[in-house]
Amino acid sequence: MVSRVIPVDPFDLVIFGGTGDLAHRKILPGLYLRYLSGQMPEGSRIIGAARTEQDSDAFRAFVKTGIDEFVAEDKQDSEAVERFLSHIEYVRVDAKGTDGWSDLKDLMRDGVIKAFYFSVAPSLFGDLAERLHLNGIADGESRIVVEKPFGRDLASAKALNSVLAEHFDETQIYRIDHYLGKETVQNLMAVRFGNILFEPLWNAQYIDHIQITVSETVGVGGRGGYYDKSGAMRDMVQNHLMQLLCLIAMEPPAQFDPDAVRDEKLKVIRALDPVPSKDIVRGQYRADGDEPAYREDAGDPNSHTESFIAMKVQVSNWRWSGTPIYLRTGKKLRARASEIAVVFKDPPHSIFGVQEGRRGNVLVIRLQPDEGMNLRVTIKEPGPGGMRLMEVPLDMSFADAVGGAGDDVPDAYERLIMDVIRGNQTLFMRGDEVEAAWAWTDPMINRWEDNGDIPEPYDAGSSGPDGSLALLVRDGRRWREVK
Ligand code: NAD
User: Fold this and answer.
1) Which class for 193: exposed (0-12), middle (13-18), buried (19 or more C-beta within 10 A)?
2) Which of the 8 DSSP states describes residue 27?
3) Nearest-CA neighbor of 308 among 225, 246, 241, 362?
4) Distance CA 385, CA 473 (A)
5) Considering only CA atoms, which residue is closest to atom 38 of ligand 1?
6) What's the CA gap between 244 and 247, in Å, rounded?
7) Tens of pLDDT, residues 213-260
8) Cβ(151) to ligand 1 under 6 A?
9) pLDDT digits (tens, 9 = 90+) for 265-293
């Protein structure tokens, strides 16, 4: 397979929060991999900026430990690592004070792309944006990358948007949702809009329902106190699942350009019906042997925060009227898997009589593990015995089809950071999208907070609370078992 890596233009990328967990595990190892692939040009620099007092050598040593720990062994190339580290600098900067800003200004170069990654708590976004301008470090061409969570409700998201808008134009702001950087998520658009095959069937007439599942096996563990302030709705549904829902349900954009794509996604969010309480199931995991229950992890024996949520969502527009989209996500479940299952209707008439297994086609788009797609089709069971039907997956393994290119597929963070440098906002959330998503989730959250709604307990290692199964059984459907 010929490598199709196209180098980006030289850049100075400042990572505020460069000594933090996210930078250590994802951002810096990701940049190393892009360097290794030849995409990051030699004329580029990465500048760590954080509160810790240390010199650039100490920061390089820290970056190296991240590469050692989080980059696959076959990508560890000690010479390349040394060369990569020579592109790294560090400045101590206080986001809330005056320390370090003139040092950072002195380090920045003219004539290269300037990008600033805000890998810090959102409460610091405004301080950073303001100081970048006050100190003449950012200009009208600079880009800023902001991490989730982008607000915890509509009011706080609006406040964050307006604080950023004081100093940066919307075209300079990259709100990251790493789900959008996944190869399969982009493939979703390629499959839907690059083929004639699916789109004519992609509507309520042919699709019975859609399931979007993001299931995790881990609990909230060490970050229980933090998680307890958000819960599955804020932590996963408002952002990741919403983005997947948009891509699966949106109309074809006129072209694959950032605003055309994001306009269509926004229309989907605005077409979402409010979800009544009877269509929402919230859960909390029980203790499992020595493993604590959610409430112990959260450090609050009376916590009403959900570690699981399932809901039935309706997109109220011409295309989707009558075809529900079921969402579910949670912690401490049976499998670690993210997938979208598009369940087509049964053929309108069976010429084979009523047979076990005669069911509609299902297109499954797997985001993790093993990104890929698979289409369930009905065929004749081989051999004698008459016309017996069976269901088999029609193999559409991209990894096989593209001949091992899977090894070189950049992970979500790598891809998204390079998109920032290229100035391509397609895979980033626009401010109005984020606000619309909060405007939809807020009333549901307020309702259960006002009513003191108590989540239903579920066993660790299960598929969630019984109510989640009942949500589909009630409609004569069932959840696909994710593995
Ligand atoms: P962290 O607590 O590990 O690191 C925080 C960083 O911010 C440190 O480098 C610290 O020095 C710096 N910092 C704090 N106060 C500062 C100040 N006044 N001036 C300058 N620097 C200051 O946090 P993290 O886990 O790396 O998360 C960073 C951001 O990314 C957060 O917004 C978080 O919500 C988001 N995020 C993290 C993850 C993850 O897996 N860690 C995943 C998704 C989103």
Assistant:
1) middle
2) I
3) 241
4) 33
5) 22
6) 5
7) 999 999 998 889 999 999 999 999 999 999 999 999 999 999 999 999
8) no
9) 999 999 999 999 999 999 999 999 999 99
